[in-house]
Structures are given as structure tokens and as C-alpha cells.
Design goal:
Helices cover 64% and strands 12% of the residues. By secondary structure, it is of the alpha/beta class. Strand 12, helix 15 and strand 13 form a beta-alpha-beta unit. Helix 9 crosses helix 12 and helix 15 packs across helix 16.
């Protein structure tokens, strides 16, 4: 079998890439990070598929690592290969929502169902595990992993017993062991003890179920809750109506700019005092005595001024008044002026006081008019108006008192409502407790039913135990037989692989070692004339060569006569010096008759092959 070409729709960094391969030796050259390992992985995924991991494993699985960098919808491609003269095309779409796998026989022009048997034929009997451990070799990956041990052992065991791969002894053994565990789980060696224990548990549960705790009082609790709920609704309605009345009363007080009884009383007393002040000012401003006195004072002031204009008579008059004391003219004038000023000041003061009283009466009267107009709608300043105002204030006082009593009633209703709500909560708790008790009762009844069913099952198990033990004895006999066969396989295991690997190791090591031994766990030893050398004691380059020989021997053993798959190397010769690499390349060309593909970031492979005259195809990526 050989690869013809491939096309990548989208895989990692590659998009819409086509690569052609030639028969024989192919050198696929590319610098570091050019995508050689991506191409290598694409070939493997086209042959064996690729599953997306779940949970945390999906973060670093192949699917996540090789999702297309651009256009993630185009995740896949095709690989064309030829086997037994027939050209096949494998098409895969790895996109999780559009996953597809198709095989087309281009020679016959028809699609082939990719059954397991057909894929075994197409892939020369290799599974993905054996492919990774034989013909697909990565950098520093010549050594096989643990999965290869079981694959080879099972293959050799099947070939020993049946001559074909149809029989899988490992799976048969696993199946028998699983069946034995199933029978063991069905056995109940303590069935009698469990039966007695269940009967005691049943009696205890029946006593618990008959206790008063599980008496059904749910309906009574629900009736009590309904009664409390109705009372609570009525109280809430009464409270709402009372709050509405309080709001209306409060609105009336607010519109009159009152807050409470004290504010109304203070306002009323202030208006009453203002009214008294108004009456007193009005009465005082209505008296004529101050006007007459003011007029007299002004007259006396005028007379004093006239005395200044009559100095002779005035002086004589003053002389008489002063008892014959002589006054000169200047002193007389000064006295007259002073008297005029005094009398004028007295008159002006009397007149100003009179006007002040009238103004005070007017101001107070205006304020009272505004007050009466706001509360009575009538600005009249009468005794009747004052009485009506006081009556109106009394109404506000009574309203304030009513509001205060209503607030107290609301507080009391709040306490009653809180108490009813506590009762309602208590009823709910009682209902919840009753429901929980009934639920527990149902659980106990269910458990009781299950216990009775288990008792019945135990009766049947006791009857079945003997038959099951007979089945287990038969399985044990079969397992013993297979264990004996497995010992025979282990004794002959190395012979199959040693014969194939020893034929290759001498050639690849340049005759330094002529044979090798492989134990049942694939531990390798190189044979010398004096002793067996463990492979981990030789140089890393030699170790890599030995494991390569082991891989090819295992591949030949597994594939047998079903064909040869291409060898795929991905930077696998980094530990080889030039001599060892030259030997290995020549050895591969001679040893492996099929197609060989070497992915490398170095040019020395191509140079050596050219120098040796070995034909090869150079593919650059």
C-alpha cells in the first residue's frame, strides 16, 4: 500500500493545501514550524479518525490543537492511497457538528461502507496503537509505549491458538472475569442474616407508623390557618380605612398649615391676642384728647414765637413774671425760643403717637382680615367673626385629637395584625410539620414496601445461590484453562519477535550487534559473545536504532501477508551522526520494500541520498 496524495481543507496552520507523494522514498523537507508534524498528524487522523475530548481533556486534545487557524468550518480533507492495484480516497470532516467519514473506490467508481473489516484490510490490520508504535515514528519516539505490549501479546496469543486474529483471548478473559464479578455481586452469603435483620426493621417501622406523631391533622391546621387569614384580612381592611380617614384629616390640617393640637391652640391664642390688641389700638386711636393737646402745644409754641417779635411787652411781662428781675433782650429771646421748641416737640409727639396707634390698628386689622378670610371666607372684623374663628379652631383642635386617637388605634391594630401574622406563621409551620410528617410517613411506607420486596428477593436469592455458585465454578475452570494457555504464550512470546527483530538489528547497527532478545514486557537486550546488554546501557543513537528494528519487526509480524503500510518518520534521526544516518537510510531502502516518508528540517538526508545515488522524491513545504 502506498500514499498517492492528500488535500487539506483546513487542519492547523494549513488551508487548501495539496501534497503529492511518489513511490519509494519521499523526503518531506521544511524548516522548523513549517508544519511537518501537522502534516504527519493529518495523515494519522485521516487513517484512524479523531475524536474530540470532553471536559478539561478537550482543552489540549488533538481536536483543539489542530483546529484550523482560519475558517474553522473547513476542518478536514482527503487522502488518496493505492492498495493491491485499487485506488481509494478517504474523506473526513472533523467538524463536531458536521462530522463525516467516507471511503471511495476510485477504480470502481463507487463508495464503500467503511466497516471495521474493510478498514482492517485497508490498513493492513494495524490499529491506531500499533500504527503509532510501529511504522509511524516521531522525534525521539522510536521506543514503544505500554499499549504496544498488550497489542503484540494478544496478536501472538491469537495466532498461537487459532491461526487468525478472529479470536481475542484477552477480551474473552476480560469478559469471563466481568461475568464472574457479576455473579459474585448477585451472591449473598449473608442472605439469612440480612433476612432476619429486615424482618426486625419491618416490625420497628410498623410500630413507628402507628404512633400519634403520624396522625393526620393537616385539615385542622389548614382550617385554622384559613380562619386566621380571614381575621387578618378584616383587620387589614379596617386599618386601611382608618389610615384613609387619617390621611384625609391630615390633609385638612396640612391645608390649614397645622401639624397638631398644639399648633392649632397656639394659632388661636395668637389670633385672640392680636384681636385684643386691634381693639385696644382702635379704641386709643379714636380718642380726641391727644389731638386737642397737640393743637394746644402747637398754639403755645406759636405764642412763644410771637413773643420774640414783641420784645418790649414781652420783656415787661417776663419782668413781672420773674418778680421784678430785669432781663436783657438776648436772654428773653432765648427763653422764648426754648419754650417754642418745647411746646412744638410736645405737640409733634402727641400727633405722632396718635398716628402710630391708627397705623398699628390698621396693620393688626389687615392681618386679622387675612386670617378670617382664609378660615371663614369673610374678612369682617367683628366680634361674631372672632367667635366664628374660635369655633373653627375648636373644630381643628377636635380633628387633631381625633387624629391622635386614630393613630393610637392604628398602633393597636398593628399589634393585633402582627399577632395574627404570628398565628398565621405558626399555622404554616404546623401545616409544614404535618406535611413533613406525612411525607416521612409515605417514605416509611415506601421503605416498608421495599423491605418486604427485599425479603421476597432474599428468598429467591437463597434459592438461586446454588445455581450461581455452579456458574462461578464453571467460569473459574475456564479462567484456569486460559491462565495455563497464557503461561504457554508468555514462554513463547519472545520467540516470535526475537526472530524477526534479530534479522534486522545486525544490518541497522552495521554488524556491531548480531541479535537481540525481547522479553514479554518488551524489555530489550542486545546479544554479545559474553553477555546480554540491556538496551538502556548503550548509546542513545544505538538505542534508537534498536527500537527502530523492533518497530519494523513488530510491524511485519502484525501486518504479515496483508501488505506493507508506508513508513512515516517525523524528525526521527536527530540523534544519528552522519555515519549512522547514512547506514540507516541505506538499510531502510533495502529492508522496507514499501513506501517511506521522512519528514525533516535538515537537508543532510537528501544530500546523503544524492551522494549515494539513491532515488528519492523531494517535497518542500
Amino acid at each position: 500500500m502506498r500514499f498517492l496524495n492528500l488535500h487539506i481543507d483546513g487542519f492547523g496552520k494549513f488551508h487548501d493545501l495539496t501534497v503529492d507523494f511518489k513511490e519509494g522514498l519521499n523526503i518531506v523537507y521544511g524548516k522548523n514550524e513549517a508544519g511537518k508534524s501537522t502534516l504527519h498528524t493529518f495523515i494519522r487522523c485521516m487513517l484512524f479518525g479523531m475524536e474530540r475530548g470532553r471536559g478539561r481533556a478537550a482543552r489540549n486534545d488533538l481536536y483543539s490543537r489542530y483546529e484550523p487557524w482560519q475558517n474553522k468550518a473547513a476542518f478536514g480533507g482527503w487522502l488518496r492511497l493505492e492498495k493491491d492495484g485499487v485506488t481509494y480516497r478517504i474523506e473526513r470532516n472533523f467538524q463536531k457538528d458536521q462530522k463525516a467519514f467516507t471511503v471511495v473506490d476510485e477504480t470502481a467508481g463507487r463508495e464503500i461502507e467503511p466497516t471495521k473489516s474493510f478498514m482492517d484490510f485497508l490498513l493492513c490490520g494495524l490499529t491506531e496503537t500499533t500504527y503509532n508504535n510501529t511504522i509511524s515514528i516521531g522525534q525521539l519516539k522510536s521506543a514503544t509505549d505500554g499499549g504496544m505490549v498488550s497489542e503484540l501479546r494478544n496478536y501472538i496469543a491469537n495466532m498461537n491458538t487459532s491461526g487468525s486474529m478472529a479470536l481475542n483471548i484477552t477480551k474473552a478473559s476480560a469478559y469471563l472475569k466481568n461475568r464472574r464479578r457479576e455473579f459474585e455481586r448477585q451472591l449473598s452469603p449473608d442472605a439469612g442474616k440480612n433476612y432476619t435483620s429486615l424482618l426486625g426493621e419491618i416490625r420497628n417501622m410498623e410500630r413507628e407508623i402507628s404512633s400519634p406523631e403520624y396522625e393526620n391533622q393537616l385539615q385542622a391546621c389548614q382550617d385554622q390557618k384559613s380562619q386566621v387569614k380571614n381575621q387578618l384580612g378584616e383587620k387589614l381592611k379596617e386599618r386601611e380605612e382608618l389610615l384613609l380617614k387619617i390621611a384625609k384629616g391630615r390633609q385638612a390640617l396640612d391645608s390649614a398649615q397645622f401639624t397638631d393640637e398644639a399648633s392649632v391652640t397656639a394659632y388661636r391664642d395668637e389670633a385672640r391676642a392680636s384681636y385684643r390688641e386691634y381693639l385696644a389700638a382702635k379704641k386709643a386711636s379714636g380718642k380726641k384728647g391727644r389731638i386737642l393737646l397737640a393743637v394746644l402745644a402747637f398754639l403755645l409754641s406759636a405764642s412763644s414765637l410771637l413773643g420774640i417779635g414783641l420784645p418790649g411787652r414781652a420783656a415787661a411781662l417776663a419782668d413781672n413774671l420773674l418778680g421784678g428781675m430785669a432781663l436783657d433782650h438776648s436772654r428773653f429771646l432765648l427763653i422764648c425760643a426754648g419754650m417754642a421748641a418745647v411746646f412744638f416737640t410736645i405737640g409733634a409727639a402727641l400727633l405722632f403717637h396718635h398716628r402710630a396707634l391708627k397705623k398699628e390698628a390698621a396693620v393688626i386689622g389687615k392681618l386679622l382680615q387675612e386670617t378670617f378670610s382664609r378660615h371663614l371666607g369673610d374678612p369682617s372684623l367683628t366680634e361674631e367673626a372672632m367667635n366664628a374663628f374660635e369655633a373653627r379652631m375648636e373644630e381643628f383642635i377636635r380633628l387633631s385629637q381625633i387624629l391622635e386617637r386614630s393613630q393610637a388605634s392604628v398602633a393597636k391594630q398593628d399589634e393585633e395584625i402582627s399577632d395574627l401574622r404570628r398565628q398565621e406563621t405558626s399555622c404554616e409551620e404546623s401545616i409544614s410539620r404535618q406535611q413533613r410528617n406525612q411525607w416521612e410517613l409515605e417514605k416509611k411506607l415506601d421503605h416498608l414496601t421495599r423491605c418486604k420486596d427485599q425479603v421476597e428477593s432474599l428468598r429467591r436469592i437463597l434459592e438461586e445461590n446454588e445455581r450461581i455458585r455452579e456458574e462461578i465454578s464453571a467460569i473459574d475452570l475456564a479462567l484456569d484453562t486460559m491462565t495455563e494457555l497464557s503461561s504457554t504464550i508468555r514462554d513463547s512470546f519472545g520467540l516470535y519477535l526475537n526472530q524477526a527483530a534479530s534479522d534486522l538489528v545486525a544490518s541497522i547497527t552495521g554488524g556491531i550487534y548480531d541479535s537481540m532478545s525481547v522479553d514479554e514486557n518488551l524489555n530489550l537486550f542486545l546479544n554479545t559473545q559474553t553477555r546480554l546488554v540491556p538496551v538502556d546501557q548503550v548509546s542513545s543513537g544505538t538505542m534508537d536504532q534498536v527500537y527502530l528494528a523492533l518497530r519494523l519487526a513488530a510491524a511485519r509480524l502484525i501486518m504479515g501477508g496483508s501488505g506493507q503500510m508506508p513508513l512515516v518518520f517525523d524528525d526521527s534521526f536527530v540523534l544519528y551522526d552522519d555515519d549512522r544516518l547514512r547506514t540507516a537510510l541505506g538499510w531502510l531502502a533495502r529492508t522496507w520494500p514499501g513506501q517511506i516518508m521522512i519528514f525533516t528540517c535538515h537537508q543532510r538526508e537528501a544530500q546523503m541520498l544524492t551522494a549515494c545515488g539513491q532515488e528519492y522524491a523531494l517535497i518542500k513545504i
